[in-house]
Amino acid sequence: MELFTAAHAFEWIGVTILFTTLFFLCSFKLLGGLQQAGYSTRKLFAWLKRKDNLVFTTLSLLSFILVLSSAVLALCFSFVKDSGFISLCAFLFFCIAYFLADRKYALKVKIVKTARFLRLTALYLIFLFLFVGAFTVGFTCAFWSIPHPLAAICRYIPMGLFIFALPVVLAVANFFDKLFEVPHNARYLRRAEKTMASCPNVIKIGITGSYGKTSVKHILSCVLGERYRVLMTPASYNTPMGIARCVNGVDFSSYDLFLAEMGARNKGDIEELCDLVMPDYSVITGICPQHLQSFGSVEDIVAAKGEILYGTAKGAVLGNDEYTLRLYDNSPVETLIAGQEVRVTDVVADTNGTRFTLWVEKEKRTVSTRLLGEHTADNMCIAATLAYFLDFSIDEIVRGLEKTEPIPHRLQPVYAGGVAILDDSYNSNVKGAEDAVAMLKKFTGRHFIVTPGLVELGIIEEEENKKLGGRLVGLDRVILVGDTLVSVVKKGYLEGGGEPEKLAVVPTLDDAQKLLKEELQTGDAVLFLNDLPDVCNII
């Protein structure tokens, strides 16, 4: 058979377009996962390899169905002239069915269609077309060259296996995209660094820690705003590009003080951020066994967070916890510990907010804030200590503390339809989870919780999630979402004496919300705890 004819060329082009379209629809979630992974191919593959990851499992199942169904169709209609085309109906039907079904299980964090994402998507489509085209031509030529009469009609069946190549094709597209992105980002970072260096009068403050970074940043913004025009990185912008985006998007010289949240997942991350920001002062809010999965040990976490002290010019404030205090003796700059010169006492946390006595040396004031949870007093103590470092008076500090509004997704109270909703969806640490559950129990009415468990705790992940399950005993409704860690939380709940009839395990947050709509009544309270992204990035 003559292979390279015009008819075959048109067939290859048409079939390649079909397969490219179908496979793109089936793998679009991979693009979202890669974005959540900070465009790190390594992190994407680590996510895919997790034994509890349903994305890879469902794609594998789709591959099996495509191979089997296309083979059945080709053979059953072998009496039809070139039933190989009929086998394509299986790909068309099952890929579209998979796409429509998979849409119901959307990523928790919606895809942000940035310029980079759109460029990567375009590259992915191009490489997908090229790879699919090469496979299509290769398989058809191979099967046509086999003299058996059934060979030709089976030429598209192996394309079902191409599903396993989709992450590889995306990795190739990401590699070539980085050839543009890396120098582009470097120029963007240099621009931000140059901007900050050209404004030496702007006080720069770096904030890091295993927990409480965003909360302390918001509190500091209010307190220091009593005297300065404050710019802070928005939301959880705590990477070099996030900080650069904040700096490059404003007239930096119009501010007096810059608060930069700094996240880390690996050794050297904080050092890189300090090279960019060059902080005059720094804050380490606290350290706990968070991100053990990426750091490996608590000692490595302490060392990584401690990098900020060596990148700080004038002074630092440390949270008063066991791990953070290890950094005090060897700190290269003047360092204050929250809870010493500045401290809080008489903490009362209820459903209306938090009240405590603030001491600045020998002076004291009563502080009342709408922020929930006993940990609020600790965060405010850290912020007040830095303000004291900057020579703020106790009255200035108190005014700023009391102006602080509830922080989005950090035990943020929302009231709707007579139901108290505690949005603690950005909480991912053990200490915060314990405080959030304790706060939920202080509300009147029935108590509901929705959680997928706690992640990125490395070797203590199972132990801590079992403890979390035990803390949920006594709640009126426990809804566990997904299957990442819920089996461990469930085990802890039941072994702690929890009632099975009060426990529900659902696959998605949408399913949890449907259940809540059916069961919640006026006067109830519900806590959304740690609704983390599908691919954990810097937190």
Task: Give structural notes.
- The chain has 539 residues and is of the alpha/beta class.
- It folds into three domains: 6-180, no CATH class; 199-403, UDP-N-acetylmuramoyl-L-alanine:D-glutamate ligase, CATH 3.40.1190; 412-529, Mur ligase, C-terminal domain (Protein-Tyrosine Phosphatase, Chain A, Alpha-Beta Complex).
- Helix content is 48%, strand content 15%.
- The protein has 17 helices and 15 strands.
- The chain has helices at 6-36, 41-49, 54-76, 84-102, 115-144, 166-197, 213-224, 240-248, 269-277, 292-295, 298-310, 375-389, 394-403, 430-440, 461-471, 486-495, 509-519, and strands spanning 203-208, 230-232, 257-261, 281-284, 315-318, 334-337, 342-350, 353-360, 363-369, 412-416, 419-424, 447-451, 477-481, 503-506, 525-529.
- The strands form three sheets. It has a six-stranded parallel β-sheet, with helices on both faces. The protein has a six-stranded mixed β-sheet with strand order 10-11-15-12-13-14.
- Strand 7 and strand 8 form a beta hairpin.
- The longest helix has 32 residues, at 166-197.
- The chain is globular.
- The termini are far apart.
